[in-house]
Amino acid sequence: MKNPVRVLGSAARRVLVPEWTAVLHDVEVLRSDRDNLLSDIRILRAELADLQQRADGLREESERLRGRVEALDVDIDEGRRLSARVAEVTDLVTEVVLPLHDREIDIVRLRDDDAEPT
Amino acid sequence: MEGEIPVTAPVVLAVRPDVLVIRADPYAGPVDVLLDGRRLFSVRLEDHPAARIPWPEALRPHLRGRGTIALRRPGYDPGAEVTADLGHGGRFTVTDASGRDLVVNKWGRLGRALGDSDPGVTDRLLDHAEEVAAVLERDLGLEPFITGGTLLGAVREGRLLGHDDDVDLGYVSTQDDPSAVAREGFEVGRVLRRAGFSVLRHSAGHLQMHFSHDGVSDHYVDVFAGFIREGHWHQLFCIRHPARRADLLPRTTVTIAGRRMPAPADVELALEANYGPGWRVPDPAFRFETPLATRRRLETWFPGMHVDREDWALRPERDDVSARARRVVALEPGFPALDLGCGAGADTAFLADRLGRAVGLDWNEIALARARTAVVGKNADIRSVNFRDLRAVIRSGARLAAEEHGWVVLVGRLLTVLDEPARDNVLRMLGMVLRRGGLAVVDPGEASPRFGAQALRHGLVVEHAPHWLEVRRAPATVGAA
Questions:
Q1: Hey, is B306 helix, strand or coil?
Q2: Which CATH architecture group holds B310-473?
């Protein structure tokens, strides 16, 4: 059997505050929403931590790649410098050192024993 | 015209020893600074936003006397002249030793401008450019064309530009490897020398032929190497632009001062590659802003061999004999002297007198001329050697080493003004010339902490003596594998 006081109270609330039931329902819905949002926040925090970890990794990778690019730049410049040096040395050899057939040839220096590769 | 901004002549408000105070509206664009009505230098107003144009550094020694100053936008009448008095009396002039007017060129240096020269210079320049081009065609099968400022002047104005100072020729190599292009560039130099031209090498891909008129330096013709690589046209010293060989060859012709001259097939592409898309608009204040990617390629493949030479020419050279030369004589070395970095030749002449013979080497053009005068009548040679050029160093070193004696070598103000490869070349030369004995004396202030280690690589040992470092050939080692 219902508590007459509660029944009376409900009736009075319906008369005096007709939105009461709706409010109670809204409260339930809001509680549920809050729980869902808290759950979302936990998930987002976990994802954020994951992203921060990935960002740290990417930052390290970026630093590593920057260092590598600088090293490659140096290597490229060195390769280009060598290209200039090859031109100089080749020009010297062809113009000054050679042509061998125009000079007295030191046949001793051309012995197989001294040659590399033999 | 609706929307057009009215352009007024810029005005000089004050001429001060450090700056020109000006007013201009709009405050933008290139402006010529005129001295007594002739262009002295050009600036971009955006570069000097405080309405103050500093005098270029190259003009500082000339800032004295009275003259009129005015400003002019290219293509417009000049603004009002103001009379400037920079003190010390006389006229404010900027001239060379022959009294010819000079301007500040796009490199910030003093040079001559065709607009200030006699009218005959255009014909002389074009004659010489045609002679140079003819040699390149006849002896090397190259197809030279006008390029750079010469092409710009031809296409835009049908003449050489008044603020220019030379004729630029370029060619497209059949090679695409920079090393092969550089080797070809060396051959170009030899061929032009054999043809009788006075050739100055700026790099493996840039040569300059100098010409005199009436006994004084008159003009020069540049020759720039070019090649197609990775879909780009490269041309010393600032071009790297998407292009195919067919964009440049076969050549077309353009007209300069009524004369037909060879030009790249697509002249508009060539000018855009050189000066950017705004090449049609005159800009006497133009300065090359070469992209880093282009600079890194061209400057590393074709390193400059002429760097600093013009600055060295401005430095004072001593005319008195150094204490070091006197100490070397006191050693009674018994060998002729080799004076590296001989400057004006005071030590070379002294050493020739005291040791019987001396050879002086330098790369400072003005000092070399003075040194040659200083040793007249003495048993001495003055030779021009560029220590940045390995080929020149080995040729000269071999020539000196071929003599059947050792040398006592003075290393003058040399090592501290050279870069690392050139310093290495100095040691390379010492290693060659000291093979029959002798020693080199080096000021301790000249030697870097790594000097001893570097010397060792060239078979040299360094010892500390009271006044200097002594460098000798290391004793021969036996049994090296």
A1: coil
A2: 3-Layer(aba) Sandwich (3.40)
pTM (global) more than 0.90: no
User: In a mutagenesis test of the B interface, which of A72, A73, A83, A96 is the best target, namely the one with the most B β-carbons within 10 Å?
Assistant: A83
d(C-alpha B115, C-alpha B113), whole Å: 5
3-class SS at B121? helix
Question: Can you point out the beta strands (E) in B322-388?
Answer: 337-340, 358-362, 380-384
Rounded to 5 degrees, what are φ and ψ at B244? -110, 165
CATH number 3.40.47.10 is the correct assignment for the domain at B115-305: no
With H, G, I as helix, E, B as strand and everything else as coil, classify residue A81.
helix
User: Which whole-number Å values give the CA distances from B410 to B233, B323, B454, in the listed order?
Assistant: 46, 12, 18
Q: Are B455 and B464 in contact (CB under 8 A)?
A: no
Give the one of A73, A80, A91 whose C-beta lies nearest to B186's C-beta.
Answer: A91
Structure tokens that stand for B45 in this block: 């107003």
Q: Cβ(B329)–Cβ(B352) under 8 Å?
A: no
Q: Which residues of B touch A85 (CB under 8 A)?
A: 390
Domain ranges of chain B: 11-110, 115-305, 310-473
Q: What are phi and psi of B359, to 5 degrees?
A: -125, 130
B179 contacts in chain A (CB < 8 Å): 83-84, 86-87, 90
* Cα B117 from Cα B219, distance rounded (Å): 10
| B391 in contact with chain A, both atoms CB, cutoff 8 A | yes
Band the pLDDT of B426: cuts 50, 70, 90. Answer: very high
Is A116 at the interface with chain B, CB within 8 A? no
- pLDDT tens-digit readout, B17-67: 999 999 998 898 899 999 999 999 999 999 998 899 999 999 999 999 999
Q: How far apart are the first and last CA of chain A?
A: 117
Q: Is B302 near chain A, with CB under 8 Å?
A: yes
Q: How far is B136 from chain A (nearest CA, A)?
A: 19
Residue B479 banded pLDDT, cuts 50, 70, 90 = very low
Q: What is the pLDDT of residues B459-475, one digit of tens each?
A: 999 999 988 999 999 98
Retrieve residue B427's tokens. 């040691």
Q: What is the pLDDT of residue B478?
A: 46
